[in-house]
Amino acid sequence: MSEALALLDAALRGGLITLLALVGWQLQRRLPAGAAARPVLALFLPGLVVQLIGSTPAFEAQVPRAWQAPWVAVAVGNAVGFWCLVRLLFDDDFRLRARHLLAWAAVAAVGAAYCLLPPHPALTLLLRGAPLLCAAATLWVLGRGWSADLLEARRRLRLGLVSGGVAYTVLGVGLRLGTGGAPGPLALLDLLGLGAVIALGAAALLGPEAPRWQQLLLAEAEPLPAPSAAAEPAPAAPDAELLARLEPFMRSQQPYRDEALSLAGLAAQLGVPEYRLRRAINQGLGFRNFNAYVNQWRLDEARAALADPAQQARSVLDIALAAGFGSIGPFNRAFKAETGQTPTEFRRAQLAES
């Protein structure tokens, strides 16, 4: 790499590390203790810093291969960290679990082994395959949650942020692992790809609209301050006419009992455009996800059935399936998250009181 490219590379890396520090500091201020975002960001942001330092061409050229092992391990493991970040941004119920950390450790171990063990085609294949597998999992998250997401801005952002991150992962595999590194201009291209993803996220989280974006993307961020009297007029009121129709329709027709019910399907039944129903449920009822809205109806029906002495002969499975859940597992998890009890515990307590 020429001296000019080396200076540009160093300046870009320093700038991106500073930007990541600012993003971490800003989020640290606004996220309450115990927020689901904290462990995910603690895994991902430092990993990006390590990746920026460890992928420096001079570092790769001058540091012995074995000494690069921890740096490469963290950089490769960051593909799992990015997947966790995407889950955090677009799945309001996501929590970092031990299994996610084990997946990160397994992928990181592949990166370390690549540096510590003699060269072998199988190791190279694993090193290429792990980030691509994580990229595929990220695309699956993107596609799975697209139709149920009720936040218009978040739906638009996921196309840029997630697609850009996945594209960078694929680009990194091609540039960095084809020859074991990304020398010269290729390293700079690799860096620019990563920088574009970081800059996009930082612009949303550090710019003038930062509080709104944080509230939008991170459900546990501090609530926005109340607008002052001199603030701009509030946005238009939610669709009152549609909301007035929606609850009676859900109660009488019980479309939620169909486990395959989608936003598009419900909009068709109501005879309204999909975007109109999405905005009504989000702005009028406060739901961020269509599945959460539908599950609320299902859980309400299940609770009523479990508390009814006349239905105590019905099995929990029968009640769950009748309410629209596809299987007992998701029902049990959703019910306990809502009530703090298993369905059986809830039924026993309710029937004891009646």
From TrEMBL:
InterPro entries: Homeodomain-like_sf, HTH_AraC, HTH_AraC-typ_CS, Tscrpt_reg_AraC-type_HTH. Keywords: DNA-binding, Membrane, Transcription, Transcription regulation, Transmembrane, Transmembrane helix. GO terms for molecular function: DNA-binding transcription factor activity; sequence-specific DNA binding. Residues 244-349 form the HTH araC/xylS-type domain. The chain crosses the membrane at residues 6-27, 39-59, 71-89, 101-119, 125-147, 159-179, 185-206. Pfam families: HTH_18. SUPFAM superfamilies: Homeodomain-like (SSF46689). This is Helix-turn-helix transcriptional regulator.
